[in-house]
Amino acid sequence: MFPSDPDVLVIGAGCAGIAAARSLAARGRSCLVLEGGPRVGGRAFTETASLGLPFDHGASWLHQADENPLTPLARAMGVEMLDHDSLRDRRLFTDGRLATHDERRDYATAEDAFWAAIDAAASDGRPDRPAAEAAPRGGRWDATVAHWEGAQICAAELSRMSLRDFASTALDGPNMILREGVGGLVTRLAQGLPVRLDARVDRLRWGARGVVAEGAFGTVAARAAIVTVSTGVLAAGGIAFDPPLPATTRDAILALPLGLLTKVAFRADDPALPDLPPFASLRRAVAHAHDRPMSFVSRPFGDPVLVAFCGGARAWEMAGDPARADAEARAEAATIFGTQGAAALGRATVTRWAEDPLFRGAYSHAVPGAQTARAALAAPLGDGRLVFAGEACHPRFAATVAGAWLSGEAAAQHIA
Questions:
Q1: How many angstroms separate the Cα of 90 from the Cα of each of 278, 283, 309, 333, 345?
Q2: Among 98, 134, 290, 367, whose Cα sits 20 to 30 Å from the Cα of 200?
Protein backbone atom coordinates (compact mmCIF):
# COMPACT_ATOMS: atom_id res chain seq x y z
CA MET A 1 0.00 0.00 0.00
CA PHE A 2 1.30 3.45 -0.93
CA PRO A 3 0.55 6.57 1.11
CA SER A 4 -2.22 8.55 -0.59
CA ASP A 5 -1.13 11.88 0.87
CA PRO A 6 2.62 11.68 1.51
CA ASP A 7 4.64 14.43 3.13
CA VAL A 8 7.43 14.06 0.60
CA LEU A 9 7.79 12.72 -2.93
CA VAL A 10 11.14 11.13 -3.71
CA ILE A 11 11.75 10.91 -7.44
CA GLY A 12 14.12 8.07 -8.28
CA ALA A 13 14.89 4.88 -6.35
CA GLY A 14 18.65 4.85 -6.72
CA CYS A 15 21.02 5.19 -3.77
CA ALA A 16 20.10 8.82 -3.11
CA GLY A 17 16.38 8.13 -3.25
CA ILE A 18 16.62 5.09 -1.01
CA ALA A 19 18.76 6.97 1.51
CA ALA A 20 16.33 9.88 1.51
CA ALA A 21 13.33 7.60 2.00
CA ARG A 22 15.01 5.76 4.88
CA SER A 23 15.98 9.03 6.52
CA LEU A 24 12.47 10.45 6.16
CA ALA A 25 10.97 7.31 7.66
CA ALA A 26 13.36 7.53 10.61
CA ARG A 27 12.08 11.07 11.22
CA GLY A 28 8.44 10.04 11.06
CA ARG A 29 7.77 11.65 7.67
CA SER A 30 5.68 9.76 5.15
CA CYS A 31 7.01 9.55 1.63
CA LEU A 32 6.38 7.93 -1.73
CA VAL A 33 9.26 6.99 -3.99
CA LEU A 34 8.41 7.26 -7.69
CA GLU A 35 10.79 5.17 -9.78
CA GLY A 36 10.63 5.45 -13.56
CA GLY A 37 12.03 1.98 -14.23
CA PRO A 38 11.13 -1.60 -13.31
CA ARG A 39 13.66 -1.96 -10.48
CA VAL A 40 15.31 -0.12 -7.60
CA GLY A 41 19.01 0.70 -7.32
CA GLY A 42 19.56 3.16 -10.14
CA ARG A 43 23.18 3.00 -11.28
CA ALA A 44 23.85 0.32 -8.66
CA PHE A 45 22.59 -2.70 -10.60
CA THR A 46 23.68 -6.30 -10.11
CA GLU A 47 22.23 -9.13 -12.18
CA THR A 48 23.02 -12.82 -12.70
CA ALA A 49 20.97 -13.70 -15.79
CA SER A 50 23.44 -12.66 -18.49
CA LEU A 51 26.54 -14.51 -17.22
CA GLY A 52 25.09 -16.88 -14.65
CA LEU A 53 27.10 -15.04 -11.97
CA PRO A 54 26.67 -11.71 -10.16
CA PHE A 55 27.76 -8.84 -12.35
CA ASP A 56 27.72 -5.18 -11.35
CA HIS A 57 26.70 -3.17 -14.40
CA GLY A 58 27.29 0.06 -12.52
CA ALA A 59 28.80 0.69 -9.10
CA SER A 60 31.29 -2.06 -8.23
CA TRP A 61 33.18 -0.92 -5.13
CA LEU A 62 32.58 0.80 -1.82
CA HIS A 63 35.36 3.37 -2.14
CA GLN A 64 37.16 4.79 0.88
CA ALA A 65 35.32 2.16 2.86
CA ASP A 66 36.34 3.36 6.31
CA GLU A 67 34.35 6.55 5.71
CA ASN A 68 31.71 5.13 3.38
CA PRO A 69 28.19 5.18 4.91
CA LEU A 70 27.29 1.93 3.15
CA THR A 71 30.10 -0.04 4.78
CA PRO A 72 28.53 -0.32 8.25
CA LEU A 73 25.13 -1.01 6.68
CA ALA A 74 26.60 -3.88 4.67
CA ARG A 75 28.37 -5.29 7.70
CA ALA A 76 25.19 -5.12 9.78
CA MET A 77 23.40 -7.13 7.10
CA GLY A 78 26.14 -9.77 7.01
CA VAL A 79 27.18 -8.99 3.44
CA GLU A 80 30.38 -10.72 2.37
CA MET A 81 32.97 -8.04 1.59
CA LEU A 82 36.63 -8.18 0.68
CA ASP A 83 39.25 -5.44 0.43
CA HIS A 84 40.07 -5.50 -3.26
CA ASP A 85 43.25 -3.49 -2.71
CA SER A 86 44.76 -6.19 -0.50
CA LEU A 87 43.92 -8.92 -3.03
CA ARG A 88 44.60 -7.13 -6.30
CA ASP A 89 47.51 -8.42 -8.36
CA ARG A 90 48.35 -5.27 -10.35
CA ARG A 91 49.82 -5.93 -13.78
CA LEU A 92 50.94 -3.55 -16.50
CA PHE A 93 51.27 -4.45 -20.17
CA THR A 94 53.76 -2.45 -22.22
CA ASP A 95 55.75 -2.93 -25.41
CA GLY A 96 54.08 -6.27 -26.13
CA ARG A 97 54.82 -7.83 -22.73
CA LEU A 98 54.14 -7.54 -19.04
CA ALA A 99 56.11 -4.80 -17.31
CA THR A 100 59.10 -5.71 -15.18
CA HIS A 101 59.32 -5.08 -11.45
CA ASP A 102 61.41 -1.97 -12.05
CA GLU A 103 58.92 -0.65 -14.63
CA ARG A 104 56.02 -1.17 -12.25
CA ARG A 105 57.98 0.70 -9.58
CA ASP A 106 58.62 3.57 -11.97
CA TYR A 107 54.95 3.62 -12.92
CA ALA A 108 53.97 3.90 -9.24
CA THR A 109 56.43 6.77 -8.88
CA ALA A 110 54.78 8.50 -11.85
CA GLU A 111 51.37 8.05 -10.19
CA ASP A 112 52.64 9.70 -7.01
CA ALA A 113 54.10 12.57 -9.05
CA PHE A 114 50.78 12.98 -10.87
CA TRP A 115 48.84 13.46 -7.66
CA ALA A 116 51.46 15.73 -6.15
CA ALA A 117 51.17 17.97 -9.22
CA ILE A 118 47.36 17.91 -9.19
CA ASP A 119 47.11 18.76 -5.49
CA ALA A 120 49.69 21.55 -5.78
CA ALA A 121 47.95 23.10 -8.77
CA ALA A 122 44.50 22.85 -7.20
CA SER A 123 45.65 24.92 -4.23
CA ASP A 124 47.87 27.45 -6.02
CA GLY A 125 45.31 30.25 -5.88
CA ARG A 126 44.95 30.53 -9.64
CA PRO A 127 41.54 30.31 -11.35
CA ASP A 128 40.14 26.86 -11.97
CA ARG A 129 41.20 25.23 -15.22
CA PRO A 130 41.14 21.80 -16.91
CA ALA A 131 42.83 19.12 -14.83
CA ALA A 132 44.88 18.16 -17.88
CA GLU A 133 46.81 21.44 -17.62
CA ALA A 134 48.23 20.38 -14.24
CA ALA A 135 49.11 16.81 -15.17
CA PRO A 136 52.79 15.97 -15.74
CA ARG A 137 53.77 15.41 -19.35
CA GLY A 138 56.70 13.97 -21.23
CA GLY A 139 57.66 11.14 -18.91
CA ARG A 140 57.45 7.54 -20.05
CA TRP A 141 54.35 6.80 -17.98
CA ASP A 142 52.66 10.22 -17.84
CA ALA A 143 50.17 9.63 -20.66
CA THR A 144 49.21 6.24 -19.22
CA VAL A 145 48.64 7.68 -15.74
CA ALA A 146 46.57 10.56 -17.14
CA HIS A 147 44.43 8.18 -19.21
CA TRP A 148 43.90 5.91 -16.21
CA GLU A 149 42.99 8.69 -13.76
CA GLY A 150 40.79 10.45 -16.27
CA ALA A 151 38.92 8.31 -18.78
CA GLN A 152 39.23 5.00 -16.97
CA ILE A 153 38.51 6.14 -13.40
CA CYS A 154 36.45 9.31 -13.84
CA ALA A 155 34.78 8.30 -17.13
CA ALA A 156 35.96 11.52 -18.78
CA GLU A 157 39.25 12.88 -20.03
CA LEU A 158 41.19 15.25 -17.78
CA SER A 159 40.77 17.98 -20.39
CA ARG A 160 37.02 17.95 -19.72
CA MET A 161 37.21 18.19 -15.93
CA SER A 162 37.58 20.96 -13.39
CA LEU A 163 40.99 20.75 -11.73
CA ARG A 164 39.65 21.73 -8.32
CA ASP A 165 36.69 19.38 -8.44
CA PHE A 166 38.92 16.55 -9.67
CA ALA A 167 41.33 17.08 -6.77
CA SER A 168 38.63 17.45 -4.12
CA THR A 169 36.74 14.31 -5.15
CA ALA A 170 39.73 11.97 -5.45
CA LEU A 171 39.25 9.00 -3.15
CA ASP A 172 41.49 6.51 -1.37
CA GLY A 173 41.08 2.92 -0.23
CA PRO A 174 40.16 0.61 1.11
CA ASN A 175 37.97 -0.37 -1.82
CA MET A 176 35.55 -3.08 -0.78
CA ILE A 177 34.05 -5.50 -3.28
CA LEU A 178 30.81 -7.31 -2.39
CA ARG A 179 29.95 -10.91 -3.15
CA GLU A 180 26.34 -10.06 -3.91
CA GLY A 181 27.31 -6.87 -5.74
CA VAL A 182 26.73 -3.26 -4.81
CA GLY A 183 23.38 -3.41 -6.57
CA GLY A 184 22.43 -6.40 -4.44
CA LEU A 185 23.19 -4.45 -1.28
CA VAL A 186 21.24 -1.39 -2.39
CA THR A 187 18.25 -3.53 -3.35
CA ARG A 188 18.20 -5.02 0.14
CA LEU A 189 18.41 -1.55 1.69
CA ALA A 190 15.28 -0.58 -0.24
CA GLN A 191 13.18 -3.39 1.20
CA GLY A 192 10.06 -2.18 3.00
CA LEU A 193 10.14 1.29 1.47
CA PRO A 194 7.09 2.68 -0.38
CA VAL A 195 8.55 2.46 -3.89
CA ARG A 196 6.23 2.65 -6.88
CA LEU A 197 7.96 1.18 -9.93
CA ASP A 198 7.35 2.09 -13.57
CA ALA A 199 6.16 5.51 -12.40
CA ARG A 200 8.18 7.93 -14.51
CA VAL A 201 7.67 11.58 -13.63
CA ASP A 202 7.27 13.76 -16.72
CA ARG A 203 6.38 17.05 -15.01
CA LEU A 204 6.86 18.45 -11.54
CA ARG A 205 4.89 21.47 -10.42
CA TRP A 206 6.39 23.10 -7.37
CA GLY A 207 5.78 26.21 -5.30
CA ALA A 208 4.66 27.63 -1.99
CA ARG A 209 1.72 25.24 -1.73
CA GLY A 210 3.78 22.11 -2.31
CA VAL A 211 4.52 19.87 -5.27
CA VAL A 212 2.58 17.81 -7.77
CA ALA A 213 4.21 15.08 -9.85
CA GLU A 214 2.60 14.10 -13.14
CA GLY A 215 3.16 11.14 -15.42
CA ALA A 216 1.46 8.20 -17.06
CA PHE A 217 0.68 6.97 -13.55
CA GLY A 218 -1.51 10.04 -12.92
CA THR A 219 -0.77 12.78 -10.41
CA VAL A 220 0.54 12.73 -6.85
CA ALA A 221 0.75 15.73 -4.53
CA ALA A 222 2.96 16.26 -1.49
CA ARG A 223 4.39 19.00 0.70
CA ALA A 224 7.87 18.73 -0.86
CA ALA A 225 9.94 16.74 -3.34
CA ILE A 226 13.45 15.31 -3.47
CA VAL A 227 14.62 14.79 -7.06
CA THR A 228 17.39 12.22 -7.43
CA VAL A 229 17.48 11.56 -11.18
CA SER A 230 20.83 11.97 -12.93
CA THR A 231 22.12 15.24 -14.32
CA GLY A 232 22.09 13.52 -17.70
CA VAL A 233 18.30 13.17 -17.49
CA LEU A 234 17.85 16.66 -16.08
CA ALA A 235 20.00 18.26 -18.78
CA ALA A 236 18.01 16.44 -21.48
CA GLY A 237 14.73 17.81 -20.11
CA GLY A 238 13.57 14.44 -18.83
CA ILE A 239 11.44 16.23 -16.23
CA ALA A 240 9.65 19.49 -17.02
CA PHE A 241 9.63 21.81 -14.02
CA ASP A 242 6.79 24.29 -13.52
CA PRO A 243 7.85 26.99 -12.86
CA PRO A 244 11.22 26.55 -14.58
CA LEU A 245 14.20 26.03 -12.34
CA PRO A 246 16.27 29.06 -11.37
CA ALA A 247 19.19 29.87 -13.65
CA THR A 248 21.70 28.95 -10.94
CA THR A 249 20.27 25.43 -10.71
CA ARG A 250 20.01 25.02 -14.48
CA ASP A 251 23.60 26.16 -14.91
CA ALA A 252 24.76 23.70 -12.23
CA ILE A 253 23.03 20.82 -14.02
CA LEU A 254 24.75 21.66 -17.29
CA ALA A 255 28.10 22.07 -15.52
CA LEU A 256 27.90 18.52 -14.12
CA PRO A 257 27.55 16.26 -17.18
CA LEU A 258 27.77 12.52 -16.98
CA GLY A 259 30.82 10.72 -18.25
CA LEU A 260 30.62 7.18 -19.52
CA LEU A 261 32.27 3.99 -18.34
CA THR A 262 31.29 0.89 -20.30
CA LYS A 263 32.01 -2.62 -19.06
CA VAL A 264 32.22 -5.69 -21.25
CA ALA A 265 32.07 -8.79 -19.08
CA PHE A 266 33.02 -12.19 -20.52
CA ARG A 267 32.49 -15.69 -19.28
CA ALA A 268 35.99 -17.06 -18.83
CA ASP A 269 35.67 -20.83 -18.33
CA ASP A 270 38.00 -22.02 -21.09
CA PRO A 271 41.33 -23.38 -19.80
CA ALA A 272 43.03 -21.83 -22.83
CA LEU A 273 42.64 -18.43 -21.20
CA PRO A 274 45.64 -16.94 -19.38
CA ASP A 275 45.85 -18.09 -15.79
CA LEU A 276 45.23 -14.74 -14.13
CA PRO A 277 44.66 -14.95 -10.38
CA PRO A 278 41.37 -13.87 -8.79
CA PHE A 279 40.96 -10.09 -8.48
CA ALA A 280 43.94 -9.37 -10.75
CA SER A 281 43.86 -6.04 -12.56
CA LEU A 282 45.65 -5.35 -15.80
CA ARG A 283 46.30 -2.04 -17.50
CA ARG A 284 47.83 -1.51 -20.92
CA ALA A 285 50.23 1.38 -21.33
CA VAL A 286 49.35 4.14 -23.79
CA ALA A 287 51.35 3.38 -26.92
CA HIS A 288 50.86 6.59 -28.94
CA ALA A 289 49.11 9.95 -28.86
CA HIS A 290 45.72 8.63 -29.97
CA ASP A 291 45.78 5.36 -28.03
CA ARG A 292 42.95 4.83 -25.50
CA PRO A 293 43.51 1.46 -23.83
CA MET A 294 40.93 -0.54 -21.95
CA SER A 295 41.74 -2.23 -18.65
CA PHE A 296 40.72 -5.60 -17.21
CA VAL A 297 39.74 -7.15 -13.89
CA SER A 298 40.00 -10.91 -13.63
CA ARG A 299 37.90 -13.45 -11.75
CA PRO A 300 36.30 -11.51 -8.90
CA PHE A 301 35.68 -13.93 -6.02
CA GLY A 302 37.26 -16.62 -8.18
CA ASP A 303 34.35 -16.61 -10.62
CA PRO A 304 35.09 -17.39 -14.29
CA VAL A 305 34.62 -13.80 -15.46
CA LEU A 306 36.90 -11.27 -17.15
CA VAL A 307 35.67 -7.67 -17.19
CA ALA A 308 36.96 -5.05 -19.64
CA PHE A 309 36.55 -1.37 -18.74
CA CYS A 310 36.36 1.40 -21.34
CA GLY A 311 35.85 5.02 -20.33
CA GLY A 312 35.51 8.53 -21.67
CA ALA A 313 35.32 9.50 -25.33
CA ARG A 314 36.00 5.99 -26.60
CA ALA A 315 33.06 4.66 -24.59
CA TRP A 316 30.77 7.37 -25.97
CA GLU A 317 31.85 6.50 -29.51
CA MET A 318 30.66 2.91 -28.94
CA ALA A 319 27.43 3.90 -27.18
CA GLY A 320 24.39 2.23 -28.67
CA ASP A 321 26.50 -0.40 -30.43
CA PRO A 322 27.11 -3.30 -28.03
CA ALA A 323 28.46 -5.48 -30.84
CA ARG A 324 31.21 -2.94 -31.47
CA ALA A 325 32.02 -2.74 -27.75
CA ASP A 326 32.23 -6.55 -27.59
CA ALA A 327 34.50 -6.68 -30.65
CA GLU A 328 36.81 -3.92 -29.45
CA ALA A 329 37.15 -5.52 -26.02
CA ARG A 330 38.07 -8.83 -27.66
CA ALA A 331 40.63 -7.01 -29.81
CA GLU A 332 42.13 -5.47 -26.65
CA ALA A 333 42.27 -8.92 -25.10
CA ALA A 334 44.05 -10.24 -28.20
CA THR A 335 46.68 -7.51 -27.92
CA ILE A 336 47.46 -8.55 -24.36
CA PHE A 337 46.69 -12.27 -24.23
CA GLY A 338 47.28 -13.24 -27.84
CA THR A 339 44.84 -14.40 -30.48
CA GLN A 340 44.35 -17.82 -28.92
CA GLY A 341 43.68 -16.37 -25.49
CA ALA A 342 41.15 -13.88 -26.79
CA ALA A 343 39.40 -16.57 -28.84
CA ALA A 344 38.84 -18.53 -25.64
CA LEU A 345 36.64 -15.79 -24.16
CA GLY A 346 33.04 -16.85 -23.84
CA ARG A 347 29.78 -14.96 -24.19
CA ALA A 348 29.72 -11.32 -23.15
CA THR A 349 27.36 -8.76 -21.70
CA VAL A 350 27.82 -5.05 -22.37
CA THR A 351 26.61 -2.27 -20.08
CA ARG A 352 24.40 0.31 -21.75
CA TRP A 353 24.11 3.34 -19.48
CA ALA A 354 24.46 5.89 -22.28
CA GLU A 355 21.34 4.96 -24.23
CA ASP A 356 19.11 4.28 -21.23
CA PRO A 357 16.74 7.29 -21.00
CA LEU A 358 16.55 6.88 -17.23
CA PHE A 359 20.29 7.58 -16.83
CA ARG A 360 22.01 8.86 -20.03
CA GLY A 361 25.51 8.16 -18.75
CA ALA A 362 27.51 6.74 -15.88
CA TYR A 363 28.51 9.39 -13.32
CA SER A 364 29.23 13.08 -13.13
CA HIS A 365 32.23 15.34 -13.42
CA ALA A 366 32.43 19.11 -13.14
CA VAL A 367 33.54 21.02 -16.21
CA PRO A 368 36.43 23.48 -15.87
CA GLY A 369 35.39 26.55 -13.91
CA ALA A 370 32.45 24.77 -12.27
CA GLN A 371 34.08 23.72 -9.01
CA THR A 372 31.11 25.10 -7.02
CA ALA A 373 28.38 23.50 -9.15
CA ARG A 374 27.78 20.55 -6.83
CA ALA A 375 26.89 22.80 -3.91
CA ALA A 376 24.73 24.95 -6.17
CA LEU A 377 22.74 21.94 -7.36
CA ALA A 378 22.21 20.70 -3.80
CA ALA A 379 20.89 24.05 -2.52
CA PRO A 380 17.20 23.74 -1.51
CA LEU A 381 14.66 25.69 -3.56
CA GLY A 382 11.31 27.18 -2.67
CA ASP A 383 11.89 27.26 1.08
CA GLY A 384 12.79 23.60 1.01
CA ARG A 385 9.89 22.49 -1.17
CA LEU A 386 12.28 21.16 -3.80
CA VAL A 387 15.69 19.62 -3.19
CA PHE A 388 18.02 17.82 -5.59
CA ALA A 389 20.13 14.87 -4.47
CA GLY A 390 22.45 12.30 -6.02
CA GLU A 391 26.12 11.66 -6.54
CA ALA A 392 26.44 14.86 -8.58
CA CYS A 393 25.47 16.89 -5.51
CA HIS A 394 28.17 15.68 -3.14
CA PRO A 395 31.38 17.76 -3.01
CA ARG A 396 33.60 14.97 -1.65
CA PHE A 397 32.20 11.56 -2.67
CA ALA A 398 30.88 12.59 -6.09
CA ALA A 399 30.48 9.85 -8.72
CA THR A 400 30.06 7.14 -6.07
CA VAL A 401 27.27 5.39 -4.19
CA ALA A 402 28.63 6.96 -1.00
CA GLY A 403 28.08 10.44 -2.43
CA ALA A 404 24.59 9.54 -3.58
CA TRP A 405 23.70 8.08 -0.18
CA LEU A 406 25.04 11.03 1.81
CA SER A 407 23.36 13.48 -0.53
CA GLY A 408 20.00 11.72 -0.13
CA GLU A 409 20.29 11.85 3.64
CA ALA A 410 21.19 15.56 3.52
CA ALA A 411 18.22 16.33 1.27
CA ALA A 412 15.87 14.59 3.70
CA GLN A 413 17.28 16.66 6.55
CA HIS A 414 16.65 19.87 4.59
CA ILE A 415 12.97 18.93 4.38
CA ALA A 416 12.46 17.18 7.69
A1: 11, 8, 15, 16, 21
A2: 367
